[in-house]
Amino acid sequence: MFESSVGQRYEDSPRVIYGAMVSTYPDLEYIWVSRNDQPLQANPNTKIFRRLSFDYYRYLVTSRYWINNQNFPTYLTKRRGTAYLQTWHGQPIRKCSMIRKLYQGRKSGYLKWVTHAKKSG
Prior knowledge:
It holds the Pfam family Glyphos_transf. This protein is α/β, with parallel strands linked by helices.
């Protein structure tokens, strides 16, 4: 399941990863979250759903992979067996887990909030 910019755009690292995966594994089923029906059907196995729709949640709980450049809703916890690749568009957050001082000025609980979905239940 791919999502970029909270479903607003077909761009950034999720788009590049998606393109590489479709080229390498064209027969897999792909799910894109979009507010405006992008991407155009790059292959017949790509399904497009609106963010926060019934199908959005259905595929979140059944997808083997989550690929996103922002956050999925913070009230979600990924199921065991799902891999979550977070590419962090425009944020130095991937370095922040090692450098705590970069959290200065953030609300308490920020690190827990941004890392919640990666945990298995």
